[in-house]
Request: fold
Amino acid sequence: TRRFIFEGFLPTDQKEKTAVLESLREETRTVVFYEAPHRLVRTLKTLQDFLGDREITLCRELTKKFETVESMKLSEAIAAYASEAPRGEFVLVLSGADPEQLIRDSREKWERMSPAEHVKMYEDSGISRKEAMKAAARDRGVTKSDIYRELLKTRDE
Reply:
């Protein structure tokens, strides 16, 4: 990977852990965690629940005699370690979110909203109409002129 972030151990407090994982949902950089063997399977399940079935590399006992490095999907790792008790300290290297999928998801979200509602949402947050039209156009991957035409159509109806 070219870019990564280091998270270390996930918090044990559930609220804090949820906040950390929510912040990583749209993270496109590779994420590096530490994990103890007795919490590995639970952590893998939590990662899958929050972030989906991403690619993960499990590095066990790095720089030691019995070092192992295995790459697989989170679901495969969960299955592998559910039947075989993990041993040793782990470094988890989790792939980031797919940027193209994030764009598709964002566009789908905006498609559920009319262009007029989209512009109004920005205006309600205190942005001028012109800036709101630019922001809505950027979100939707269209030009400001396209948004303007849609607003005129809506007004005429």
